What we know:
The protein contains two helices and three strands; from the N terminus they run βααββ. It is α+β, with helices and mostly antiparallel strands. It has one domain.
Amino acid sequence: MVDTTSQPELGRGNPYGYLPQTEIEKLRDDDAIRMVTQYDPNREVVIVLLKSGERTSTYRVQVKLREGD
């Protein structure tokens, strides 16, 4: 999870951290819950961006394997 609404030190990025599935479920964000419950942690990561106005954007990113892997 990345908090895009906060930048403690200007130009130094946004705070982020890992949240377990139980904490993601507390957000009541259907897209985030769906992606977290379905992703493969060996090949994928789910990124939740917290935005202003209590909005979120959620992405499920997968490693593209090389042929033969």
